[in-house]
Amino acid sequence: MKIAIVIDHLTTEVAGTEGQVVKLIRGLAPQHEIHLVALRSTPWLESPAARSLPCKVTVFDLRAVKTAAFWLQLRALFAFMRELRPDVVHSFFPIANIIGVIAAHRAGVPVILSSRRDYGYWMTPRYLAATRFANCFLTGIVTNSPSVKELTIRAEGFDGSRIQVIYNGVDVGRFAGLQRDHALKAQLGIPAHWKVITLVANYRPIKRHDLLIDALAKLAQSHPDACLLFIGEDSDDGAQARTMALVEQRGLRERVFTAHAKGDIERYLSIADIGVNCSDSEGLSNAVVEYMCAGVPSVVTRGGGNVDLVRDGINGLSCAVGDAAGLAACLARFLDDEALRARCAQESLRWVSEEMSLPAIVRRFESCYAGLLAAAARGPQAGPGTDGSPLARAKALVRAAAGSAPVMGRLRRKVAGHGVTVLMYHELGGDDDACDVWQIVRRGDFLRQVDYLRKHYEIVPLERALEVVEQGAFGDRPLAVLTFDDGHRGNAEHLLPIVRQEGLPVTIYVATGHIEDQRAYWFDRVVNALQRPGEARVDLSRHGLGSYFVPARPGPRRWVQIDRVLHAIKSLPPLRCDEAADEVCRQVGGAGLRPAMWPMTREELREVAAHPLVTIGAHSHGHEALTLLPLDEARLSIELARQHTHEWLGRPVRHFAYPSGLHDAKLVHLVREMGFATAMSNHAGHWRSADVRYEIPRISVGRYDSLDKFKVETVLGLRGLPRRLLSAA
C-alpha cells in the first residue's frame, strides 16, 4: 500500500502523538511505501533523526492563513496529493485533520482517515465546525482509547461504527530487565531511602502539577520520606517557573526534584516507586503506558483515557479529577503497602505486553488500512452524496452550520426563543438492538439529544409550558417539551430509568386498547413481521394496494420500503387495516421473533405514571385515524381512552394527542368540547400561542436522525429534512 501520513508538525520523536507517528512509520515501512507530509517546518525535521526515517518527507509551510504564501502552499499541497495518489491518507493533529483530509478528498484518495488522541480541550467552536465539515469526507476515524471514541461521537456527531480504537504502541522490550539506577538517584540529589513519586508531563496547566504538589503537602507529616520527581519540558509561557514558585509556597523545595529525559525515560523510571498522571483531560497517556512497561504502579485521575488503562485496585489506583485529597489518599495507600504496589505493577506489565506492544499495534493499523481499502475497491456503500457531488457539498455545509455554536446560537435566539419546542418520540430501544424501526430511537442517541437540549434549552413539563404560552412569558432560554406516543414497553424498560436518573420531565400519550388486550396494533404487527432476517416480498393486490419489496440489508433504506407498506395500508378504511396487516404477517412469517413494538402492561403503565415527572395523556382507544371515523365513533374512542386511563391510574387526564397527528376542524372542536387542556398534532413548528393549544406543533424524532439533523430541525421547527442531506454519517 502507498500510505501518506499527514501531520501538523514533528518536533520530536519521543513524545506523545509525534512519537507514535514515528513508531508507526518505522513499523509500516518494511512492507509499504510511506510518505510523511508535514504542514509546518521544524528544526527536528532538519535533524539527522528525521533524515533516518524510512520514508520520503515533504514539508509545506501552512502557518499564516492571511498571507498569500499560505494559499500558494495550500495549492501546492493539493497538487502534491493529486500527483502522489496514495491508497490511504491518515491525518494527525487538528490542522491536518481539516486541511489534510480536504486535500485527500480533492485528490480522490480512496481511504481517508483522521485521528483523535485526546479530549479536545483545545477545540474552539470554529475548529469544531471546520472539523465536522472535513469529517464529511472521511472513511473513518481512529482513536487511541474507547473514552476518546465516545467523546468523538458526542462532540462531533460522528458515526461510532466508523470509529476504530487502536491503542498507542509501545516498545515493551525497551524496558525489559530494568534495574534501579542508584547513581542517577544520587545525581539528582534524592536520598537513597526516599520513595520517589514521578510525574512525566510537560509543564502545562492541564497536566495539574499543582494538584500533585498539594497532595504531597497533605502527606508531608505522615510520609516524610516521600518526594516528587517532575520529568518534562517547560512551555513557552514559563509554566515551570510558576510550578516551582508554588513548591516554594508550600514549603516543599527540599522534596521536589526536576529532570529532562532525552530519550532515556527508562533510566528515570527505574528509580520511580509510583507513577502519577493527574491531568484534567487526557487521551491515552503515553506516560502511564511507560509506567506500566517499567513496572511502576500508577495513580491516576479518572480523566479521559486514564480509565481505559488503569482499573482501580487491579493494576493501579485512581481518584476523581481535581481531587487533591483523593490523590493524596491513593499515594498514601501505595506508600504504605509494598505488596499492593508489586501486585499492581505486575498486572500492568502483563496487560500492556498483550495489548499495546509495537508489533501488535502495527498489525492492527495494517489490518485497518487494508480492510478499508478493500471495501473502497468494492464501491461506495453509503449511497449518493459521498463522492464530492452537490449533495455531498450541501451536506457538508449544513453539518458545518450545525456544528457552529455562533450560528446555532443566533438561530435559537431568533427562531426558537419565543416559543416552545415540542419533540415527538414513540419508543426507546437498547443501543445494541438490531431492529429496523424508525420509531425506536436508541437509548444512547436519546441521551445525546437530551444532553444537547439541556445545554441550550430548558426542558419543562407540559403543564409548565402551557402556563408560559398562555401568559406569553417567554424568557431568554428556549423551552422544550418531550412527548412519547402510543405507550410501548420501551417507556418502562428504557425511558423510566432515564427519567429517574436524569430528572427528566416527559409526557406519554397512551392508546389504551393495545394495553388492555396486550395485542399490538396493525401498524406494529406489520413492523414486527418485517423485522425477520432477509428480504421480503409483500403482495397486497387483493386489497387494491399492489406489491412491495423490502431489501435484506438493515438501515434507513430498508425502513423506507417498510414505511411504503405502512402508508399503503393506512390509506384503507380502519377495519380493513387489520385485515391487510394479517395478510402481511401470513406472507412474511416472523413467528418466534421478539416483537420490536409491543405495548406496556397495566402494571408497567402504573409504575411509569407514578413518577412525579411523568404526565400521562390520552391517544384514543384503538389508535384509529379519527378523521376517517364518524364523529360519534371518534368521541367514543377518545372517551374510552380517557376513562380507562383514569380508572387505571386514579387521576384525571388533561391532555390529548391525535393518532398519527390526523385531525380536522371538527375533531379540534370535539377535543376542546370534551374538556382537554391541550391536543398535540404532528404539524412542524414551534408552539408560540395559546390559540393553537388544540393543534400544538411537534417535531418528530426517529432512529435514523443524526445529531445534526436533530439540531437543525429542533432550532428551525422543521420536520422531515431530507435524510440524504442530514442522515447519520
Structural description of this entry:
α3 crosses α4 (96-106), α4 runs parallel beside α5 (125-135) and α22 packs parallel to α24 (574-588). It is elongated and about 95 Å long. It has four domains: 2-166 and 360-377, Rossmann fold, CATH 3.40.50; 172-355, 3-Layer(aba) Sandwich (Rossmann fold), CATH 3.40.50.2000; 411-520 and 595-724, Glycoside hydrolase/deacetylase (TIM Barrel); 533-592, no CATH class. The longest helix has 20 residues, at 358-377. It has a seven-stranded parallel β-sheet, with helices on both faces. Strands 10-9-8-11-12-13 form a six-stranded parallel β-sheet, sandwiched between helices. Strands 14, 17, 18, 19, 22 and 25 form a six-stranded parallel β-sheet that branches. It is 44% helix and 15% strand. The chain starts with a strand and ends with a helix. The chain has 729 residues and is of the alpha/beta class. β2, α2 (48-51) and β3 (56-59) form a beta-alpha-beta unit.
Task: State which percent range the strand residues make up.
Answer: 15-25%
How does CATH name the architecture of the largest domain? Alpha-Beta Barrel
What is the arithmetic mean of pLDDT? 87
Radius of gyration: 30 Å
Question: So, the CATH homologous superfamily of the largest domain?
Answer: Glycoside hydrolase/deacetylase
Instruction: Please report the distance between the alpha carbons of the first and last residues.
Output: 26 Å
Q: Count up the domains.
A: 4
Task: List low-pLDDT spans.
Answer: 381-388, 722-729
> Helicity level, as a percent range?
40-55%
